[in-house]
Amino acid sequence: MVEMPRTRVVFFAQKGKAPLLEWLDEQSEKVQDKCLVRIERLAELGYELRSPEADFLARWNL
What is this structure's pTM? Predict the structure, then answer.
């Protein structure tokens, strides 16, 4: 089986600030962990990521 290359996840930033990362910093540790797990899955699977995980990330246009 051929392993897919990792997808590079890029966060929108303007004037040195990334709104998603700022929002994430304001959340509880539990919420941060859940979000980071899903972002990591996006990096691992790229366009092969499917619902419901992809639906969760689509809220932030990742």
Answer: 0.72
